[in-house]
Design brief:
Layout: H1 3-29, H2 31-38, H3 47-66, H4 70-90, H5 97-118
Keywords: Membrane, Transmembrane, Transmembrane helix
Length: about 140
């Protein structure tokens, strides 16, 4: 992969992370406004769930914004993929259906984008030691 396409992939990863970070900030600080706009039938007694999801998005995407390497992007793909899958049974509950559909679709799109970008960003863009568990150390990491 060329240096130019590496830079483009990292910029794309940071753009994805910035969008997720902003979305998470809005969801964690204004859950009532978000649910009113997206899923008005969502019960106000459950806004803490939206706030918690927003906080998770902030942390997750802040990590990628700081270090847009393949390890962080793979983690985003897995977490968002699991979140999307967890929304499937919630679709059966009429009161939560629209919120689950929007949340699950956004998570699925993020998982697919992060998974694709993980294969495009250079491996050296992750901090030392953040590779997959059990991965072989390279260069100066070997002793």
């Amino acid at each position: 992969m060329s240096a130019r396409s590496d830079d483009r992939a990292q910029r794309s990863a940071r753009l994805l992370a910035a969008a997720g970070l902003v979305g998470g900030l809005v969801l964690s600080t204004r859950p009532a406004a978000v649910t009113a706009a997206v899923a008005p039938e969502y019960p106000s007694a459950r806004l803490w769930v939206a706030r918690l999801l927003g906080a998770r998005l902030v942390v997750q995407h802040a990590v990628v914004l700081v270090s847009p390497g393949p390890g962080a992007l793979r983690a985003v793909a897995v977490v968002d993929g699991l979140h999307a899958a967890s929304m499937l049974p919630v679709l059966l509950l009429p009161r939560y259906r629209r919120a689950a559909l929007v949340s699950g679709a956004a998570a699925a799109a993020s998982a697919l984008a992060a998974g694709r970008l993980a294969g495009q960003v250079p491996a050296g863009s992750d901090p030392v030691g953040s590779g997959p568990v059990g991965s072989e150390p390279t260069g100066s990491e070997r002793r």
